[in-house]
From TrEMBL:
Bias (Acidic residues) ranges: 589-598
Domain ABC transporter: 338-574, 1039-1278
Keywords: ATP-binding, Hydrolase, Membrane, Nucleotide-binding, Transmembrane, Transmembrane helix, Transport
Places the protein is found: Membrane
Region (Disordered): 589-630
Organism: Piromyces finnis
Protein name: p-loop containing nucleoside triphosphate hydrolase protein
Length: 1287
């Protein structure tokens, strides 16, 4: 730059001397050589050159500019394209490695973290890492190289002046270091906070039915907001830090220019330097310091990336305490000899509580050993120790005489088939679920396993048979159907050891009987460990072990233990299994079977079959059944007939959100394509809404815009001051020194102003951005949590027009909802700053052109032709980044779904050795769109390269035309330089916008997606103040269900309930029981009462008023619900129980717990009622303990209406008896609907409704239905033969 200015000074001198002397170039050259021109400064004389010499020299410089422009394009293209691609690939790899590490960690580690937290970490932390490795890394390298190059040139031109100016470098370095340290600390705190928020959101969305039922939406919102507040504070601290530090950096750089002018003029006066060299030093140090200061802003991205990487790499590098890859792998399968020798065990999360207190027993090959005892006695713990989920504290567990810890864990798990109490399926087809750990299985083998588990018939009646998707965590199926698929899955491996932990607890009587016999036949020849609360299912075991508080108190066969007449005997008596009457029962059953065979199988089943098929699925081909089918065969199909099981609304489910119901796995590769949401840009931005949301934060926003406007004006002001100051160097003596001092002070003033403006700009917008992000997250979560339950079953988050989840629709899952919450809101943080930066650049452009037009309108007009070219690069980059961010959003959501599913079901994943399967699936979800992302990176890089290169061509054109104008006398050099500097600084501002605009575009797109969620009106709005509210005790509790016809919003084509003209009336204070096979619509009808869903046709009335007429919140307060699978939150036991009544006193909590028979257990824990319950999939309590907490939660409400969906299925015999009694007492004076598979628990109900295929086929009390000898009668015979004998 200094050389070019010297060249121009030669031209100015030539033109001036020509004008003054009238001589031509040759004569002038001669005159200067002999010194015949009076008053000419010798230093200026040395600069003289003729017109031809000038243009020859000038062309060489212009050629350099052209070459630099081309090289800038190539270098920028390569830098942007390849760094973006490598950062994408590396981030994909980091995500994969993180997930791989998470899924290989031991269960105890998972118990300390929440699945949502881990899944959101994989997304948000790696986004920061990607940001720090991509284009920004290239910018920093480029800046550092520029800085070094500039300083080398400066030192060559004048080392003394360069050294003086270099004093700013260590100061800047210290400031930048301090800034980086502060940013790193607070970034880590923010990321930790957001990860915890991800966990809270994941848990809430997963248990939305519980939240809705207890009306605790506000409590959940408060819990979320409480954890959100600190993140806002950390963000504000980061904003202040950035504003102050970067403001100081620019203040110091501008102030340092004063050194160049004050000292430089003295060096010129003393002939130590020429002004060309002073200019070179000045330009070198200026450009070097400017580029280094640009690094400051990018360093914040590095600090954030380092902070995030620290956490992620900790996860990646963490070695699991239980290594699944080492250990002895025998050549032969195990024989199945199991032995426990004095085993002691404490859960890592509760080290003070000893769960197993020195148990010892043997299980010989082929034997069946049953473990019985109260909930929490250590039964399931023994199973978990056999699966090596935990390491024992002391003692030995032997398999085939060898310590279990010597074996390879994967081999051990491959020898074991596990069916646990809470069945876990994955979001895949039924075939995939059954064969998930035997990928080479043939279709015949899958069907054979399904037949063994009595699942084949109901699977064949699903809409796509074995290719039907089961939904997230098997949500599209009922509890019983899920359980049978899990049993089929366990049998697929043909394991030598079978562990059955309450394997039939979710089944109705008839299914249980059939599955029980299937299990018994499956168990033959295998070593089987059975845990059961229904003692009738274990009486044939070779050995029964009775556990009490972690110790074995009795063991022996059924007959031996009955003879002892101690603990086991009492358990049996409590359950009233009259073993001696079993034979009689079997005989009655056989007689009955023969009597009813023809009548039952032909009339009853075939009639309902025809009508169901006609109504539900006219296209389904079902071959007519032969009339000679026996009763037992028809029982197989009893509970799962024709319906694609409609229990999305199953209260029991732990995770309530259906996922992509792709009808088969082969369509997976198209998910990303299908899910592409509409993309948005600047033109779609709803500015009015944006301004309204920002109104409360007007002060930081005004400061930000003030700072932006002033910062925008700084660039043109600098161009003006700099080009004006250059004239000083042409003066002599005192004028030279005074000029240097004046312009030096001007630069110091400019620096101080820049500090103030920069702080206002960055600090103001950063603070406003944090407030905005906080507000949007709060509103977004508020809106999501208040949506109707159907919203969580379906995909649409737009205008409320839900889409059904057909084969080509990827429906929402908790994973994608939490992903949205994490990614969209974090993208919006920078929106204010980006808009401010664009505003700043507009001011720069306007200021620059004003100066340019004032000092040379002709040259400015010519240069304006280049402006559109400056914008072309920015536009290309913006478009490709817009599409890229949409692609990224889809990658996050589909991969996050896989991560959430695997982490939530970590015990099942471990037991089935599915770590590699999920790892591959996760990589597949990440790799699918990588090629498209890479293609976009190339297009984007062309835009960036073009933006960078065009500035050099603008210099060329500006100088060329400027030289012609000066030569022709149209312009003075001083004015020409002001015009060129103003236009070029403006061009640089526009070039910067090529990196800002895509960021702003991403933020705008995220903002619009957030608004879609915030503005979505809930179909069933719990916040609606309208509707009937009765006085206290004003509700009687008369219920009526009439002519109901219902389909789930997620599957509108599948009819779930079709009661026709049937109606159910339940008078005040009476109990009505719903019975029937799994998937017949029992739980669905319970979900209609508290308005989880509204009926399609028909009515649900409470006290002769439709439930839609009531105030929804008030109505739900009158209802207490206990679900089949207890949905508890990862908060303390006390807080869980207070869900039922937010203002409950401690006394009320203790009373409710005593009623639910859980108080004593809670008091035995070290932290008592403050003990954390644990998250989904890693709960630290047994099923029975959780169930009793859930019952206490319902009891504390003292509700008018009580809904019990299999409320005691997870309890042991003793607890069941106590809790059943407590429930009976609790239901006195209340209208109660109970769903039960154990018919003995409901025989005293005032009314029993028998459901089948969504219809009511029988109604009446126990005696009436027994006399009818129909469906109910057969169910009683199949299950509880003793019901009749109970008095």
């Amino acid at each position: 730059m200094g050389d070019i200015i010297e060249l121009f000074m030669s031209l100015v001198m030539l033109v001036t001397l020509r004008k003054e002397t009238g001589l031509d170039d040759i004569a002038l050259k001669q005159a200067i050589k002999i010194g015949s021109i009076p008053g000419l400064d010798p230093s200026l004389a040395a600069l003289f050159m003729t017109k031809d010499e000038f243009w020859h020299e000038f062309h060489i410089y212009m050629l350099y500019f052209g070459l630099i422009g081309i090289m800038a394009f190539i270098a920028t293209f390569l830098m942007d394209a390849f760094l973006t691609i490598t950062s994408t690939r590396q981030t994909t790899r980091i995500r994969g490695l993180t997930f791989k590490s998470i899924i290989k960690q031991e269960i105890a580690w998972h118990e300390k973290t929440s699945p949502g937290e881990l899944a959101s970490r994989i997304i948000s932390d790696t986004m920061l890492i990607e940001d720090g490795m991509g284009f920004k890394l290239g910018s920093v390298i480029q800046s550092v190289v520029t800085f070094i190059g500039c300083f080398i040139l400066a030192y060559i031109s004048g080392w003394k002046l360069s050294l003086m100016m270099s004093i700013i470098i260590p100061i800047i370095f210290i400031i930048v270091m301090i800034m980086s340290i502060i940013l790193k600390i607070y970034t880590k705190k923010s990321q930790d906070g957001y990860a915890e928020l991800g966990g809270i959101a994941q848990e809430a969305f997963s248990q939305i039915r519980t939240i809705v039922s207890f009306g605790t939406e506000q409590k959940e919102i408060d819990r979320y907001v409480e954890k959100l507040k600190p993140t806002r504070r950390y963000g504000i601290i980061k904003g202040h830090t950035l504003g102050i530090c970067l403001g100081l950096v620019f203040c110091i750089i501008y102030s340092s220019f004063a050194i160049a002018f004050i000292k430089g003029t003295r060096f010129i006066r003393d002939n130590e330097m020429s002004y060309g060299n002073v200019l070179n030093v000045f330009m070198g140090i200026m450009m070097g310091a400017m580029t280094l200061s640009g690094v400051g802003a990018t360093l914040s991205a590095f600090s954030e990336a380092i902070g995030a990487a620290t956490i992620i790499y900790d996860i990646i590098e963490r070695k699991p305490l239980i290594n699944t890859n080492t250990g002895y792998i025998p050549d032969e399968p195990t024989q199945g000899h199991i032995e426990f020798q004095d085993v002691h065990f404490n859960y890592p999360s509760r080290p003070d509580v000893e769960i197993l207190k020195g148990i010892s027993f043997k299980c010989l090959p082929g034997q069946t050993v049953a473990l019985v005892g109260a909930s929490g006695s250590g039964k399931s713990t023994t199973v978990q120790l056999l699966e090596r989920f935990y390491n024992k504290k002391s003692g030995r567990i032997l398999i085939d005489g060898k310590d279990i810890e010597e074996y390879n864990i994967k081999w051990i798990r491959s020898q074991i088939g596990l069916v646990s109490q809470e069945p876990t399926l994955f979001d895949a087809s039924v075939t995939k679920n059954i064969s998930i750990n035997t990928p080479d299985a043939s279709k015949e083998q899958v069907e054979e396993a399904a037949k063994l588990a009595n699942a084949h018939d109901f699977i064949m009646k699903l809409s796509n048979g074995y290719d039907t998707s089961t939904g997230e965590r098997g949500l599209q199926l009922s509890g019983g159907q899920k359980q049978r698929i899990c049993i089929a899955r366990a049998l697929m491996k043909n394991p030598k050891i079978l562990l059955l932990d309450e394997a039939t607890s979710a089944l109705d009587n008839q299914s249980e009987k059939i599955v029980q016999s299937a299990l018994e036949s499956a168990a033959s020849g295998r070593t089987t460990l059975v845990i059961a609360h229904r003692l009738s299912t274990v009486k044939n075991a070779d050995l029964i072990i009775v556990l009490e508080k972690g110790s074995i108190i009795e063991s022996g066969t059924h007959d031996e233990l009955m003879a002892l007449k101690q603990y086991y005997y009492n358990l049996v008596k409590n359950q009233e299994i009259k073993v001696e009457e079993e034979k009689i029962k079997d005989e009655i059953e056989m007689e009955n079977e023969n009597e009813n065979e023809n009548e039952y199988s032909t009339t009853d089943i075939n009639k309902s079959q025809e009508s169901n098929l006609n109504e539900i699925d006219r296209n389904q081909n079902i071959s007519s059944r032969s009339q000679s089918k026996s009763l037992s065969q028809n029982l197989n199909s009893y509970d799962d007939y024709t319906m694609e099981n409609p229990i999305v609304g199953r209260i029991s489910s732990n995770l309530t959100l259906s996922l992509n119901s792709l009808s088969n796995g082969t369509k997976n590769q198209y998910i990303i394509e299908e899910r592409r949401e509409k993309s948005y840009g600047f033109k779609d931005m709803p500015w009015k809404k944006y301004i309204n949301i920002n109104k409360p934060y007007w002060l930081p926003n005004i400061l930000g815009f003030f700072g932006s406007a002033c910062n925008g004006a700084i660039q043109p002001a600098f161009a003006f001051i700099f080009s004006s100051a250059l004239n000083t160097f042409t003066k002599h003596g005192d004028d030279l020194i005074k000029g240097g001092e004046f312009w030096g002070l001007m630069f110091i003033l400019l620096g101080v102003c820049n500090f103030i403006f920069f702080y206002c700009n960055l600090g103001g917008f950063f603070i406003a951005g944090e407030h905005l992000s906080y507000e949007l997250r709060r509103r977004m979560y508020n809106s999501m949590i208040r949506q109707e339950v159907g919203f969580f079953d379906t995909n649409d988050i737009g205008d409320g027009s839900e889409k059904s989840s057909g084969p080509n629709n990827n429906t929402a899952s908790t994973g994608t909802l939490t992903a949205k919450l994490a990614t969209e809101a974090s993208l919006v943080i920078g929106l204010n700053l980006n808009i401010g930066t664009i505003f700043q650049q507009l001011v720069t452009v306007i200021g620059g052109f004003c100066i340019a037009f004032i000092y040379g309108w002709k040259l400015t007009l010519i240069l304006l032709i280049l402006v559109p070219f400056l914008f072309i690069g920015s536009y290309v980059r913006m478009q490709s980044i817009k599409n890229r961010s949409q692609e990224n959003r889809n990658v996050f959501e589909s991969s996050s779904k896989v991560a959430c599913e695997a982490i939530i079901s970590i015990k099942t994943v471990a037991a089935l050795n599915l770590e590699d399967y999920f790892e591959n699936l996760y990589y597949q979800k990440l790799d699918e769109p990588t090629k498209r992302l890479e293609r976009r990176a190339y297009i984007s890089a062309i835009g960036t390269g073009f933006s960078n290169a065009i500035a050099f061509f603008a210099y060329m054109v500006g100088y060329w035309i400027g030289a012609v104008f000066i030569e022709k006398g149209y312009m003075e050099f001083n004015n020409m330089f002001k015009v060129v500097m103003a236009i070029i600084l403006t061009a640089m501002a526009v070039g910067q916008s090529s990196s800002i605009a895509p960021e702003a575009n991403k933020a705008i797109e995220a903002f619009i997606h957030i608004l879609e969620i915030i503005e979505r009106k809930s179909r069933i709005n719990a916040e609606d103040e309208h509707g009937i509210k009765k006085e206290e005790d004003g509700l009687n509790g008369d219920l009526e269900f009439k002519n109901i016809f219902f389909s789930y919003p997620s599957r509108p084509n599948v009819t779930v309930l079709q009661m026709g003209d049937k109606q159910i009336k339940i008078p005040t204070g009476k109990m009505c029981a719903f019975v029937g096979g799994s998937g017949c619509g029992k739980s669905t009808i319970i979900g209609l009462l508290p308005r989880w869903y509204d009926v399609t046709e028909g009515s649900v009335k409470v006290d002769d008023v439709e439930n839609k007429e009531y105030n929804i919140k008030w109505l739900r307060q009158q209802i207490g619900i206990v679900n089949q699978e207890p949905c508890l939150f990862n908060i303390s036991i006390k807080e869980n129980i207070k869900y039922g009544k937010l203002d409950a006193t401690d006394e009320e909590i203790y009373e409710a717990c005593k009623k639910a028979n859980i108080h004593d257990f809670i008091m035995s824990l070290p932290e008592k009622y403050d003990t954390l319950v644990g998250g989904l999939g890693t709960s630290q309590m047994s099923g029975g303990q959780k169930q009793r907490i859930a019952i206490a939660r319902a009891m504390i409400r003292n509700p008018k209406i009580l809904l019990l969906d299999e409320a005691t299925s997870a309890l042991d015999a003793e607890s069941e008896l106590i809790v059943q009694k407590a429930l009976e007492e609790a239901s006195e004076g209340r209208t109660t609907i109970t769903i039960a598979h154990r018919l003995s628990t409901i025989k005293d109900a005032a009314q029993i409704c028998v459901f089948k295929d969504g219809r009511i086929i029988e109604m009446g009390n126990h005696e009436d239905l027994m006399k009818q000898k129909g469906e109910y009668y057969n169910m009683v015979l199949a299950g509880d033969g003793d019901v009749e004998k109970k008095k």
